[in-house]
Amino acid sequence: MAKCEVCGKGVAFGIKVSHSHRRSNRMWKPNIKRVRAIVNGEHKKVYVCTRCLRSGKVERNYGSAAPVAAEAIVAAE
Ligand SMILES: [Zn+2]
After folding, report:
1. What is the 7 CA–ligand 1 centroid distance (Å)?
2. Are 4 and 52 in contact (CB under 8 A)?
3. What is the mean pLDDT of residues 51-70?
4. 66 CA distance to ligand 1 middle (Å)
5. Sorting pLDDT into bands at 50, 70 and 90, what band is 17?
6. What is the Å distance from ligand 1's center to 1 Cα?
7. 9 C-alpha vs ligand 1 centroid, how far in Å?
8. Which residues partner with 44 through β-bridges?
9. 49 within 8 A of 6, measured Cβ to Cβ
10. How confident is the model over 36-47, as a mean pLDDT?
11. Nearest Cα to 4, choosing from 61, 43, 54?
């Protein structure tokens, strides 16, 4: 389930080693966030890892409500 829709990064497996060197299997999950992004010109909820968010691999339209509101005010006048 935990998978980035941009880079395909998923869970990784390894071994936890305690101080007494007892070994047990463990799993690392990627830091996945559900964000509202622009995909093919429309807003969609996508699951993206924080690394892709940081490097700007997803297009997010911040403050898109403000220009729409301004147009509505102009149209009302
Ligand atoms: Zn990613």
Report:
1. 4
2. yes
3. 72
4. 29
5. very high
6. 14
7. 6
8. 37
9. yes
10. 88
11. 54
User: CA 48, 54, 57 angle in degrees (round to 5)?
Assistant: 60
Structure tokens at 48: 């993206």
Tell how far the Cα of 8 is from the centroid of ligand 1, in angstroms. Answer: 6
Contact yes or no for 34/50 (Cβ under 8 A): no
Name the pTM for this structure: 0.65
Query: 56 near 35, Cβ under 8 Å?
Result: no
**Ligand 1 centroid to residue 70 C-alpha, Å:** 35
What is the chain's length? 77
Interatomic CA distance for residues 75 and 28, integer angstroms = 52
The pair of structure tokens assigned to 26 is: 């463990």
